[in-house]
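Input for the complex:
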Amino acid sequence: MTHADQFPMVRNVGLDGMLVTFADTMTETSNRAALAFRGMMEAERPSGVIETSTSLASAYVRFDPGQLSHVECEGWLNRLLADRDWYAARLPKGRKFWRVPTVYGTDLAPQLEDAAAAAGLSASDAVERLASSRVRVLTIGFAPGQPYLGPLEPAFDIPRLKELNPMVPEGALVLAISQFVLFSGPTPTGWRHVGQTAFRCFQPERTPTFALNPGDEMQFVSITPDELDEIRTRNEDGYGGAQIEEIEA
Amino acid sequence: MSLHVLRIGPACTIQDQGRFGYTEQGLSRAGAADLMALHEGAALLGQSPQLAALEMAGMGGEFEASQDMRIALTGAPMACSIDGTPAVWNASHQLLKGQHLSLGAVSRGSYGYLHVGGGIASDPFLGSRAVHLTAKVGQVAAAGDALPVGQDDGDAGQKIAVSDRFQGGTLHVVRSFQSDLFDDATRARFEQTEFTRGPRANRMGMQLDSAGEGFAAKGQLNILSEVITPGDIQMTGTGNPFILLNECQTTGGYPRIATVLPCDLPRAAQTPAGGAIRFKFVTLEEAADLQAAFVRDLGRLPSKTEALVRNPHDISDLLSYQLISGVVSATEKGDPQ
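Predicted:
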C-alpha cells in the first residue's frame, strides 16, 4: 500500500480504513467519481464494513480488520475499480440549489479585504465575483453538516493561513484554495473569514438534522448587515433566508 | 431513578462507545476517550459495555443517589469517598438513597469514569448517548443536573486489576496515506523523539511538545483536505504534532505523519500534561495482531473481576459496625439443645 504511479490509487488510513483517491486535485470529474464509487461501496457493503464516506476526490471505507483483512478489503476495492470508468459517472439525483444571503466584509467578516489582496483584487471586485459564483457541495466534513464548496475561479486559489484564527462563528463563509467552507459551528480555522450568513448546516434539535448533501449547489448573495439582522429575527427553519430550488436531473 | 449532581468539574460528559456512520455528514464518532475504562466499568457491574457512563476530565464532583443504586469507578484514579468514607477505585459499590459520592482530582491520567448500574439513560441522538461538544450534541454535566439511571438489579462489591495506562509511554503507530509527505529523515527523527503532552488537550485532540525543530511536510499548506480518523497525528503549519481523538474533525488539510492504533488510544488520551510519549512504527500485520489482542482482552474483562474485601484499616468508623451479627448465646432461652 505504497504510492501507486497512477490514479485511482488505494491506500490505508490508519489500521482500520482504506482510501480510494481519484486525483491529487479536486476536479469536477474526480469529485463525481468519488461520489459514485462510494455509492457502489454502500450497495455491496461486505461483512466487516463499518461505514463509508467521500472527501473531495476520494472515497473512504472504515472496516473491522478482525472481520475483513487488509488483503481482502484491498482486493474488493480493486475489483470495484476495474468494474467501470468511475470518471464518467453522473452526479447524484435529487440535488438542490440554495441561494443564501451573505454579508461580505465589515466587522462580521473581517478578512474579506485580506483575501481580496491575496487574490490581487479590490475588495468590491472580490465581493462581486464571490457573490455571483455558483458552487457545488464537493464534500461535507471537518464538522457536522459542514460543506466544502467550489470550485471558485483560479484567482481565489489562495493559501491557508500559517496561524489559526482563534474562533469564527457559526454561519461564517471562509475562503482558501478556490473553495468556500460554510461553518456549521464556532471553529478555529486556517481559512480567511470573508462572509457571514445565518445559515445552519447542522441542527441536532430538528429533522432533517443535516441541511445539505454532496452534489447540492449554492450561491452566496450579497446583503447588508441590517438585512442579516432582519433575517435573524425570523430564522425559524435555520436556513438564513435561503431560497431553495430542486435541480432538474 | 437518577443521580443528582451537586457540584462537578468543568469537563464531564456522558459517553458510550460513540455513534458510527455519520462521517459522510461530517459528524465524528465521539465516545469514551478510554474505551477500556468503559469496558472495565461494565465488567464490574456485570452489564453491557454499550451502556453510557460519566466521563470526567481531570476533576470529578459530588453526587447524591435518589434511590439505592450501584456504581463503579474506573479510568484515571481520583480521590473518592462515600459519605466521607474512602471508597476503592477500579471497583463497584452500593450507593444508598441519600448517600453522597465525592470524587476529587485525578492523581494519575486524565479521564476518570463513573458508571451506574443500568447505565446513564439519557436520550440517545442518532443511535448514541455520547455527548459531542464541538458538534453541540449534548452538553457538559452541570450542578443541578439529574442524570437518569437505567433499570438495574445486580450486585456490587467487585474489584478489577487494570493495566497502567495513565502515564504516557510508547504508542504504536502505522504509516498512513499521507506519511510519504514527510521524508525518511523526518519520519526517523519523529520515531526517535521523546515528546511530552502539552497543555492544550481536550476530547478533540492533544498537543505534543518536543525540543528541536518541528516536523514539517513539503507543501503542507496546500494539500487537499482529506479524511481524518481518530489516532491520526496531525502536523499544524508550524510542524507541531497533535494526536487527534474521538471528537476530532472528519476531514482536514493538515498532513498526518502516522496513525496511533485504536488499541493504544486509551493510553494516549490518558497521558497527563507533561507525560512522556514516544512512537513506534509497526506494520499493518503487526498492528492487526495488537488490535486483535486488545479486543480479546476487552472480552475477558468480565472474568477478571473479584470480590472486594474491605481492609479494616480503611474503615474509619469500625467501632460502629455490628461485627458479631448472627452469633447466638449458648445460654439464651430458646437455645436448641
